[in-house]
């Protein structure tokens, strides 16, 4: 049996099917992203009878109902959404929703004399040679005879017969042929998912999460559209709270639901520590509630698949949607979300640039929700989530195959009588003395400032409330909150003048430290032994040259918190390599102490 059939349909038929809900257009988290010029070009291609590509649909698998009969689901449009939305907007005049969730009309104008399409603009509205909005021509009450007379009266250079020919050609656009690839309803979910992911739509490669969102959207029986909108709007508002009123005004039906009230708090929330995408939200809610990691399994469950019999059953669809809804509502809960973000901040992550692994954050939130559901003591939840988050970054636990590791970890946390015991077992296996003394030290041998290991060192400094290098009152967290920069302990210009010109060498993260700009300007391109001698002198009653530290005990403490070897008082460029080795060891020790204190 063929996996698909290729047929031709017409623009009019496809628009009719969509109006009658025979084909569902899942928004797949993407509002209409084409600019108006692309809609204009699409209409021009149809007018000239050029091919405009295929759309791809898939019939849901047949599902068994309680009485044993089969249910035929509606077709899902899995590729071609933007084109179909563009056609519907241009021909019927329907509004589209832009990336800010504002409704707008896309008005395409047409010049019958030049047979040319253009996006409507003020100049066109004043020019009688243009039909300002082609949707008027396609409206049911359009009278072509009177319009031709009216147009030719305003444009005497246009012959009635020619105008009739051009107008009929324009109206024939709705009968233009569009290719349709229909995927067989007998295809299993995995195959359709693979096909779906391989399709490139509007330059964006679709993902399993996109497919899951489409499955959610088309199931009106079990609140699918409401679940999808809850996910969609929450993730948009967490990044763009100012768009709240647009959503409230443009989607009045959803604005009246309890789900909308549950995400209302986001409009007044302004933290960028954790800004989940719809893919992140889906992953967390799914893994937390279903104890599974593969989003393709979510697609299967939402389709009603019984993993043992490989049948598709309606009761599985119903329970899967209910469970997913519960997971989504737990995710968007103001109490849960804000408490989780506070835990993240308490681990030293005060800015999103300190944690590049979204997967580590996602699993930490999944774990938080699971333990909340299990009524684990609040203080224990805080400690376990903090430690697991930092451990995940330390070991890059979710950088390889996150779905597999998500499922492995969440199931073991779920089975553990005491979640702390599972944490300790992983610590024993992955954070041994060999890791701290060798592997981590080696990982710190890099020039990549976005390295998770350098970020861990900064997190440790924030956690310990450390002062910046050679600063008496300005902390590292102060500088980071003000978007301060890291500076070189061995000044870059000093190393370059000394013959160390390789960027990967002078930009080693073990040569980086947070300092105030005024301190950095005072250091300039001096050798460490030179500028540290000036600091030593001022600590013994001499003139203030660098920073505000005037006490040797304060200086020693500042050097310890910034992991600066005491040997720095005697170092020049010939000692640079040895300095890096010594500081890496000190940084690794600080990170270890930080982790153990969490």
Structural class: alpha+beta
N-to-C span = 59 Å
Number of helices: 30
Low-confidence stretches: none
- Average per-residue pLDDT, rounded, comes to 89
Radius of gyration: 31 Å
Major sheet details: 5 strands, mixed
Percent in strands:
5-15%
User: In total, how many beta strands?
Assistant: 15
Task: Give the helix level as a range of percent.
Answer: 40-55%
Q: What's the arrangement of strands in the largest beta sheet?
A: 1-11-3-6-2
Could you please describe the fold and organization of this structure?
- Residues 13-215 form the GmrSD restriction endonucleases N-terminal domain.
- InterPro entries: GmrSD_N (IPR004919).
- This protein has 598 residues and is of the alpha+beta class.
- Among the domains are: 108-173, no CATH class; 334-431, no CATH class; 443-597, no CATH class.
- Helix content is 54%, strand content 9%.
- It has a five-stranded mixed sheet with strand order 1-11-3-6-2, with helices on both faces. Strands 4-5 form a two-stranded antiparallel sheet. A two-stranded antiparallel ribbon has the order 7-8.
- α17 crosses α18 (358-373).
């Amino acid at each position: 049996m063929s996996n698909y059939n290729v047929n031709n349909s017409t623009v009019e038929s496809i628009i009719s099917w969509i109006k009658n809900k025979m084909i569902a257009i899942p928004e797949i988290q993407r509002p209409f992203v084409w600019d108006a010029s692309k809609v204009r070009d699409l209409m021009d291609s149809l007018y000239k009878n050029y091919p405009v590509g295929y759309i791809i649909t898939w019939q849901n698998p047949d599902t068994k109902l309680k009485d044993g009969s089969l249910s035929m689901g509606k077709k899902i449009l899995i590729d071609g959404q933007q084109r179909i939305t563009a056609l519907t907007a241009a021909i019927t005049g329907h509004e589209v929703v832009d990336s800010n969730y504002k409704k707008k009309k896309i008005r395409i104008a047409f010049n019958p004399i030049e047979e040319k399409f253009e996006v409507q603009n003020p100049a066109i509205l004043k020019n009688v040679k243009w039909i300002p909005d082609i949707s008027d021509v396609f409206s049911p009450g359009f009278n072509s005879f009177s319009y031709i007379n009216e147009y030719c009266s305003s444009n005497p250079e246009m012959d009635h017969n020619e105008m009739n020919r051009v107008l009929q050609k324009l109206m024939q656009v709705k009968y233009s042929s569009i290719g349709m690839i229909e995927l067989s309803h007998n295809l299993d979910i995995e195959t359709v998912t693979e096909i779906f992911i391989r399709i490139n739509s509007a330059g964006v490669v679709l993902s399993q999460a996109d497919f899951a969102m489409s499955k959610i959207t088309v199931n009106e029986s079990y609140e699918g559209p409401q679940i999808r909108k809850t996910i969609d709007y929450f993730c948009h508002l967490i990044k763009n709270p100012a768009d709240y009123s647009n959503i409230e005004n443009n989607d009045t039906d959803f604005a009246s639901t309890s789900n909308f009230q549950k995400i209302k708090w986001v409009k007044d929330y302004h933290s960028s520590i954790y800004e989940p995408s719809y893919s992140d939200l889906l992953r967390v809610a799914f893994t937390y509630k279903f104890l599974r990691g593969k989003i393709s399994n979510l697609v299967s469950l939402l389709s009603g698949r019984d993993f043992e019999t490989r049948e598709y059953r309606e009761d599985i669809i119903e329970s899967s949607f209910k469970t997913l809804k519960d997971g989504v509502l737990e995710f968007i809960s103001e109490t849960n979300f804000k408490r989780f973000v506070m835990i993240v901040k308490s681990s030293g992550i005060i800015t999103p640039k300190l944690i590049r692994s979204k997967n580590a954050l996602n699993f930490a939130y999944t774990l938080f929700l699971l333990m909340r559901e299990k009524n684990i003591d609040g203080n224990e939840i805080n400690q376990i989530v903090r430690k697991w988050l930092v451990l995940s970054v330390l070991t890059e636990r979710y950088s390889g195959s996150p779905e597999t590791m998500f499922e492995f970890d969440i199931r073991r946390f779920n089975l553990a009588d005491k979640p702390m015991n599972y944490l300790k077992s992983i610590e024993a296996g992955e954070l041994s003395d060999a890791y701290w003394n060798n592997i981590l030290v080696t990982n710190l041998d890099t020039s990549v400032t976005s390295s998770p290991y350098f970020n861990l060192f900064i997190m440790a400094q924030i956690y310990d409330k450390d002062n910046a290098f050679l600063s008496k009152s300005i902390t590292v967290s102060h500088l980071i909150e003000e978007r301060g920069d890291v500076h070189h302990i061995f000044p870059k210009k000093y190393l370059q003048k000394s013959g160390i010109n390789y960027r990967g060498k002078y930009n080693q993260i073990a040569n980086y430290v947070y300092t105030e700009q005024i301190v950095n300007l005072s250091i300039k391109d001096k050798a460490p032994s030179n500028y540290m001698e000036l600091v030593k002198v001022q600590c013994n009653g001499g003139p203030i040259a660098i920073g505000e530290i005037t006490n040797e005990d304060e200086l020693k403490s500042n050097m310890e918190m910034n992991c600066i070897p005491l040997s720095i008082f005697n170092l020049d460029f010939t000692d640079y390599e040895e300095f890096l080795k010594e500081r890496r060891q000190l940084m690794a020790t600080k990170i270890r102490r930080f982790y153990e204190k969490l």
